[in-house]
């Protein structure tokens, strides 16, 4: 609300494995030192949107290792904290379930759309099935 820009990015460095964040209060001319956020991340892609309500939503793999879980988080205080979380994909650790490279938007009616590369293991031992998945939900769903 005060025109500060916040960038979230992945980190492939040493633990703890978290989404990293940096802030700029001069329209991107200079940036703060990058620091860990509270959201775990194994060095995978994430995407974020400011919702019509003013709340922020971010979607990412929220594990320190693996991409078998994909969650959406909601912040009602411009990223200072992420009080709400819902899993979109929740595979077993060590399974071939994967959810990668998410994208998030909000449509004109207020619905939140998430797309991601989806990998699901087949029961008969054949190659994993891969496709693009699309989820649609409301801000209220994340908060409940």
Please tell me what the overall shape is.
globular
- Enumerate the strands of the largest sheet in spatial order, edge to edge or round the barrel: 4-5-6-7
- Cα Rg: 16 Å
Q: Order of helices and strands, N to C?
A: EEEEEEEEEEH
Mean pLDDT: 94
Say how many strands there are: 10
Taking pLDDT < 50 over at least 5 consecutive residues as the criterion, the unreliable ranges are none
Number of helices: 1
Strand content: over 45%
What structural class results from the helix and strand content? mainly beta
Taking the alpha carbons of the first and last residues, their distance comes to 25 Å
Could you give a short account of the major beta sheet? 4 strands, antiparallel
Helical content stands at under 10%
Characterise this structure:
There is one protein chain. This protein has 144 residues and is mainly β. It has 1 helix and 10 strands. It has one helix spanning 139-143; strands at 5-9, 18-24, 35-40, 46-50, 56-60, 69-75, 84-90, 98-106, 112-120, 129-137. A 4-stranded antiparallel β-sheet has the order 4-5-6-7. Strands 1-2-3 form a 3-stranded antiparallel β-sheet, with no helix packed on it. The longest helix has 5 residues, at 139-143. It starts with a strand and ends with a helix.
């Amino acid at each position: 609300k005060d025109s500060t820009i916040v960038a979230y990015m992945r980190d492939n460095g040493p633990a703890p494995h978290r989404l990293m964040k940096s802030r700029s209060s001069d329209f991107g001319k200079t940036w703060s030192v990058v620091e860990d956020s509270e959201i775990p991340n194994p060095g995978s892609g994430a995407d974020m949107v400011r919702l019509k309500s003013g709340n922020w939503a971010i979607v990412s793999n929220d594990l320190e290792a693996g991409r078998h879980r994909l969650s959406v988080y909601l912040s009602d205080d411009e990223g200072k904290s992420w009080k709400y979380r819902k899993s979109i994909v929740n595979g077993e650790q060590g399974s071939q379930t994967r959810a990668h490279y998410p994208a998030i938007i909000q449509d004109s009616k207020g619905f939140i759309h998430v797309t991601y590369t989806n990998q699901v293991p087949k029961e008969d031992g054949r190659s994993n099935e891969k496709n693009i998945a699309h989820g649609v939900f409301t801000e209220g769903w994340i908060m409940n």
